[in-house]
Write a structure and sequence with these properties.
Layout: E1 21-23, H1 27-36, H2 39-48, H3 53-67, H4 82-105, H5 109-123, H6 142-154, H7 164-174, H8 187-190, H9 195-209, H10 215-228, H11 230-235, H12 243-256, H13 259-292, H14 295-306, E2 318-319, E3 322-323, H15 324-333, H16 340-350, H17 365-370, H18 382-396, H19 412-423, E4 430-432, H20 440-448, H21 457-471, H22 474-477, H23 493-509, H24 521-535, H25 554-566, H26 576-586, H27 597-601, H28 610-619, H29 627-639, H30 644-655, H31 661-669, H32 676-695, H33 697-718, H34 720-728
Parallel strand pairs: 1-4
Antiparallel strand pairs: 2-3
Length: 744
Amino acid sequence: MSAEPTHVPDDTTTSLPRRPFHFTPGTGEAVDAVLAAGPHEVFRTLVRDRESEVTLLLARRVLHGFLGRAAGLTGGPPDGDLSAAVHGLVEGTRDELAPALAALNGAEPGVRAEVLRQRGVVALLAGCWLDAVSQPATQPAVVVNRLFAQHFELAGGGDPLRSAHHHRARALEDAGAALPGIAAADFLDRANARPATALLACFPLALSVLPGNFLPEVVGVHHAFHRLGIDDRLLGTPPPVPPAELDELLAEYAAQADPVDQARLLAAVALTVQLEREHVGLLTELAEFRRTRTLESEVAEVISRHAPLAGRQHGRAAVGDRSLVEVFAEFGRTAGGADPAALAHFLTEFRESPYLAELPGGDCRFLAAIRFGGPMFGIFDEREAALLADWVATVHNGERGEIVVRPNTVGDHVVDRWWPAVADAHPDDVVFDDTPPSGDRELFYRLVNIENWANTLPLAAERAEQCFVDAQVLFEHGAGGRYTDASFFDYDPDALYARAERIYWEKLVDPYEPLTEVPDADEVLFRQSTYHLTYLIDGAWLHRVGRLGRRERESDGMLFRIHADEMGNGDLRKNHLTLTRRALASQGTRLPHIRTEEFVDQDDLPDDMYGFALQQLSMCLFPDRFYNEILGYNLAIEMFGSGEMRLHEIQKLRHHGFDDCYEQAHLTIDNFSAGHAKQAADIIVAYLDRVRRTSGEAAVAGEWHRVWRGYASFAYFLEQPLLREVAAGPPVAHPVPEDAELVL
């Protein structure tokens, strides 16, 4: 019978210790180059590249630029009740913005669609700040689990079609404001995103890169953004997180946080309120600009958009006394787009040119050229072609008024206010050095706290890749593994399921027989101590998968669901790290949190156990680069949760009265019937099926090779006796003895 559940106090961490941010020399110059390119490039970098030092430093500087002004928006720390102070800020702003939002919703459909497309840049970021808030450095804090529960809700329980992001994207589409995926190269262009919109969106994006270090700000932004509900009110969609849940989160945080963290949260709320107020103002300004602009201004915008791509294919075509090649090349060279006066001059001459001269039937050479069969067909979309036809009709009607092109300066005052603070941000907690870690313990510390040790990313990538390469020795010899079979085989779905099922029965389940003699307590505790380092980072291999811009594949949602299970889906009682703490406490082991310097110096866990944990922590930092390997590793680790080893550990723990909650949880949740082990195989099949459909059968083999070396990398640490035999002589053709040494 299992021992009584061991009580452990809740982790009431509300912020992580303030630490410097370490970067490799030269990273600052790379960030300067991104910033020099302007808000659009900053946005794209923060979305597309989550695995480099450049992005982490860029995020730090963006946050410093915005948050440096946040404290001044609150008038100081909260006076008394934090919840009341937040409620006053947010609800007051909701009321203040109501007339503007009503006016935007009542705008003419074309104008409203343009407004919603602009707002979509911000709306589709909602919740991105929660993507990595659950990480080894922050779990299992109460507030992190509360946030993760809401993250799970926003993500549709791991089903992309039920996610808040998907519902918002569909609502935009229904309103005529469809946008591509947020990581698409033309996302900002398709949204006609103003520089101010891109800039304001960089704040939540930066927060999503460094959520561990800015936990109070994450809570504040999350509460204020969803409580304001700008997008719900514009799109007519229900709140993705019930207001009562947001209020409960805030109240719980307020009860646990000290005055410093409360002040940080309130400043983040005030900043979010201010940024949302400014963006609604921008949308109002945009609606007015679109409503009052002249037809010629609209035509000029279309021409300005296409001119830089016109190239030299216009040959000898000329307008006035200049060739079109020369004119369009000049438009393309002009910083910030074509000059309004130059556009007006071009349109004035163009309307008098032979290309617009009316032909019998009301046609002209230009309109004929852009229709099907003409040399410019497909250059302009349907809306643009209709706009150009309307303008030509006015020309044919004899309208010859002065053409004035009004420049689009919507939101430029917002850029003037915020961009200098961001572009010139140089936080004093940034350190440039390339000192390597002194050993495995320090490397573990850095990887857990990777937000502060970005200079360790190159080492982590190199270490992970080397392990994947070394593990391929098991492609030939893996059949002799005691708990795994990493020998390579050609992929097809049936072959994968057959291999996994054979491992499950022949290596994990069938060998099981109850122990006839249970080792003494000291031996049991030592054996457990060899696992604890791994248990303390449970789920880490998946914690960065499925972030913003990386949720399109079915396999992404499936992986997220497994990670969510490991974290108890936000239920602290079911969180596997809570179970680990219970197990440790029942064994009399009290360890400092793995993110602390004190953990580096603890002497409860053996030094030679770090290799496996370091590989997992290194690999997980690169969910784009090592996506395939993570799929294979996920299969291996989830299968290992079942069978003989786990059953023996449960028997030993129960015999000595230790809490077996952690072992028991994995024995049940990792089953091969419908649990994580089966799901892990399903994920690989789903991913490779997508590869086959999008890239062809030939591409599957290369993708599969990488998946399987991920599986082998787990076996590489598990099957140490087999590897010693391989190194010593001819490959073994039999399982190693039952007392096989585990190196976890």
